[in-house]
Amino acid sequence: MTIKVLAIGDLANNVTTMKEFLKSEIHLINFPWETMSKIMDEKKDVEFFESIDVLKNLKKINQIKNDYDICLVLSSAGARIAYLADLNYILFVVGNDIRTPLFIKNVKDPYASNEPIFKLNFFERKFYRDVYMNAITCVAGYSENFKFLKKFRKDARRIDRTLVNTNILKKNIDDENLKFEKFTFFSPQRIALQKGYDIILESLPMCQTKFEIIQVKWFETRNEKEIKFMNKILKEKPNQIKFVEPMPRDKLAKYYSDSDAILGQMRAGHVGGVERESALFKKATIAYNDLSTNYIIDGKEIKSPFLPTDTTPNSLALLIDKIVSSKKFKEELAREEFEFIKQLTDPVKTAKEWDDLFEEFTVKCNSINRNSSKIRLKFRLFFFLVVNRLYWYKMKKIFKKRN
């Protein structure tokens, strides 16, 4: 049974990677976000909405929805379109979309700032709560994201395994090697408080060894505190950091491959996309490991070997120096991380979990259409337009803050 999946919205190449491994046929429509997600998406067979105009996007989805069996959404923006189109949609929550959902009053990022990320009124928050609650199921990975999701969806699903598209990340054998004069860390992650970049900056003056950090120039700017943080870095960039411009995913392989080690995040405590990709290159990767975070694979709990296990700048500085100065330690850490990530990203088993999920809800729902009454749909759209009476302005503002 081949399931046809309509996917809407993809911030971190999750869907484009699924397309490479799943038996289900997935068509992705993404938003024209002027962010890394647009730059990094593999363009093959990926369609983009022409604008962020919700009504135009809704019209587009209504024109094509009957060609598909089920819908998968990532991001609040993707879920919003599926809700207004009255689809049976599975909501896959990652990162900010579950840590800082739009339906929480004055929501704050627990990893970044005490300032509210969004200040939506009661009716706007109610709309987005309906968007999340209307999903036929919600899926999260790892104990951290699952913990947030379970707060409002008791029927939450958990898929800890994650796909990595190693085809995109294969270095072309004809590519000329990058030549670095010093020991080099590559850091393709966002420069953001939620990534613990403030901890990284505090640690650098404490380091005793010589190295440089090749950092992709990509900042988080959701509120005034983050904007001030960005401006401070641009004005007072440490000598160890060298910026490179954002690049397509197929160019990342060269930097992963030719760097000595990888610098990941220092706040969330669980492995993200950078950590998964770099470990598969067998590169020692620095990333904070919250020891309370667990991973369930084949019904068994496994623990992450990533280091450090605390977020103090001093611990990070000591770890950086040890990786730079000890080849043996660097190689042993890389081997342990590789073995862990290899379990977490098994493509056959991961693809089967998602294919089984799509088949389960395709059979259960029988159609991508929820078939709500026309009166209910008209009220739903009317309610959206009323509570977002300035939605041209508000939507642009939300997209800007989100990215």
Give me the secondary-structure topology.
Layout: E1 4-8, H1 14-21, E2 25-30, H2 36-40, E3 46-48, H3 54-64, E4 70-73, H4 76-84, E5 89-92, H5 96-99, H6 122-133, E6 137-140, H7 142-149, E7 157-158, E8 183-187, H8 197-203, E9 211-216, H9 224-235, E10 241-244, H10 249-258, E11 261-263, H11 273-280, E12 285-286, E13 295-297, E14 300-302, H12 313-325, H13 327-344, H14 347-365, H15 374-387, H16 391-402
Parallel strand pairs: 1-2, 1-4, 2-3, 4-5, 5-6, 6-7, 8-9, 8-11, 9-10, 11-12
Antiparallel strand pairs: 13-14
Task: Describe the structure in brief.
With 403 residues, the protein is α/β, with parallel strands linked by helices. The chain is 42% helix and 13% strand. It has two domains: 4-163 and 348-402, Glycogen Phosphorylase B (Rossmann fold), CATH 3.40.50.2000; 183-344, Glycogen Phosphorylase B (Rossmann fold, 3-Layer(aba) Sandwich), CATH 3.40.50.
